[in-house]
Structure formats: structure tokens, C-alpha cells
Design goal:
By secondary structure, this protein is an alpha/beta fold. The chain is built from eleven helices and seven strands. The N and C termini lie close together (10 Å).
């Protein structure tokens, strides 16, 4: 059995957390919109196009507000939401920095292009990751097997030499099908315990 060489982390829902609830529930609260309508709109192709940088923030916000039959003036709420209602889990970040001394670390995220600006200002993760593979840059989305294959090539390790952590089971299952060790994030403590069990084998 190959020893682990790399740990690959999802961003939103693992390292980047909402101030309360989930992305969808908090967005519904901020807009005063029904949760089921938010979930319906987020499940449509436009959300993928946003993560692939094929439509920009302004176009995605317009799509959401049109779908919710809300005035375009509410774009200001959305702009505030995507930045101010999220924060980096500093304890998780410190743990990642610690294991980076012994393992290659990478971010693998489905995220729109504003991730780059925000990570220079509010979502600072300096010193934690050797690589960042974002959907907006590589034009691929989890759980497409191609994005995991690309990540492994960037990192320079085999599937079985890596661990992938994501809060969405569908993304973890896709990685595991390629031979990558997978962990579904439920909490910081659970994730760290599960990862340590793999790393210490």
C-alpha cells in the first residue's frame, strides 16, 4: 500500500464556513425568499456556469432575482452576502498549515472567479496550500472525474497516495471511484480524526 503524500481540501463547507446554517438557507434568509425556491434556482445550470466563470457575479445575481421575482436593487444584498456571511475556519486552517510540513496540500473547489479577489482580502489562507484548483480556472466541476485527475497531475501523486475531503458526499464518492481516499466533512473534529486515522496507517 502506498503511503499518503497529499491531502486535497474542498473550500466552501470545509475551510470556508457560513456564519449560520447552509449557503442556501442563509441566502433565503438574507433575501427573504422561500428556501425551496432558492434550492430550485441553485440546482439549475446557471449556478454551474457561475462556478465555471462563464457568467459573472452580476449576471448570476440577476438570474437569481429574476427567478425570485425580486427587484434588481437587491443585488446589493447578494454582493454583501457572498463576502460578509462567510469566514475561514481558523482552527482548521492552522491544522492544515501543520500537516503541510509533512504532506502536500491542495484546494479543489467549485467556485466563481471572485474567489481569487476574496482570498487576497477577507478569506486569507496564506501558508496553508501548495496548490489551488478552482472550477472557474480549469473549466471543470466536481464531481466530474476529470477535475480529480487534473488535481492529481498538478500535485504529482497517485490516487491512492491522496486524501480528498468535501462536505458533499457525491463529490467524495466520485473521488473514491478513482482510488482516492475520501472523507465526508461533517465537523472539524470528525474530519481531523478521520484524516489522522488515514495518515497514521
Amino acid at each position: 500500500m502506498n503511503s499518503i503524500k497529499a491531502v486535497i481540501w474542498d473550500l466552501a463547507g470545509v475551510v470556508l464556513l457560513t456564519v449560520k446554517g447552509t449557503f442556501n438557507s442563509l441566502l433565503a434568509e438574507r433575501l427573504g425568499a422561500p428556501l425551496n425556491e432558492i434550492e430550485r434556482l441553485i440546482s439549475l445550470e446557471e449556478n454551474d456556469l457561475w462556478d465555471l466563470d462563464e457568467i459573472d457575479d452580476d449576471a448570476f445575481y440577476a438570474f437569481l432575482l429574476k427567478g425570485l421575482k425580486m427587484p434588481m436593487e437587491k443585488k446589493s444584498i447578494l454582493r454583501k452576502f457572498v463576502l460578509e456571511d462567510f469566514y475561514i475556519d481558523q482552527e482548521m486552517l492552522e491544522y492544515i498549515k501543520k500537516i503541510r510540513k509533512s504532506f502536500t496540500t491542495a484546494l479543489l473547489t467549485n467556485f466563481p472567479a471572485h474567489v481569487h479577489d476574496f482570498m487576497k482580502t477577507d478569506w486569507i489562507v496564506d501558508g496553508a496550500f501548495d496548490h489551488m484548483i478552482a472550477s472557474c480556472d480549469v473549466k471543470l466541476l466536481k464531481p466530474d472525474p476529470a477535475i480529480y485527475t487534473l488535481a492529481l497531475a498538478r500535485i504529482g501523486c497517485l490516487a491512492e497516495e491522496s486524501v480528498f475531503i468535501d462536505d458533499r458526499e457525491i463529490n467524495v464518492k466520485a473521488a473514491e471511484k478513482l482510488g482516492i481516499n475520501g472523507i465526508v466533512y461533517q465537523s472539524r473534529s470528525q474530519t481531523i480524526n478521520d484524516l489522522e486515522a488515514i495518515l497514521q496507517k
